[in-house]
Amino acid sequence: MINIIDKCKLNFFIDLGLLISGIAVGITGILKLKIFGMHIMALNPIHGFAGIVFVALALLHIILHLNWLKCTAKQMLTSKKKKIK
Asked: What residue segments make up the domains of the chain, in order of their start?
């Protein structure tokens, strides 16, 4: 079992990786647009790699927070049922 400090550090580094890879995908995607006249083919591998890293980290993030997601969804669904009555 991961203790709370290790989990906080792990979440921090996953979130940092998501931020960096997301920014990389965004910037390379914008630079790849022909609008700017900078359609640089060399950006394709960077854009693709950053996208793969982003998706992998996003999936890991969701897996690590699955219990929280289930709990929150359950609370939201039960609170809606109470309001309907």
From this structure: 4-84
Of residues 32, 53, 50, the one with CA closest to residue 41: 32
DSSP for 20-59?
A: HHHHHHHHHHHHHSGGGT---TTHHHHHHHHHHHHHHHHH
Report in angstroms the alpha-carbon separations of 51 from 24, 62, 63, 65: 8, 16, 18, 21
pTM recorded for the entire structure? 0.75
17-to-27, 35, 41, 79, 80 alpha-carbon distances in Å: 15, 29, 24, 35, 35
| pLDDT tops 80 at residue 34 | no
pLDDT band at 85 (very low <50, low <70, confident <90, very high): low
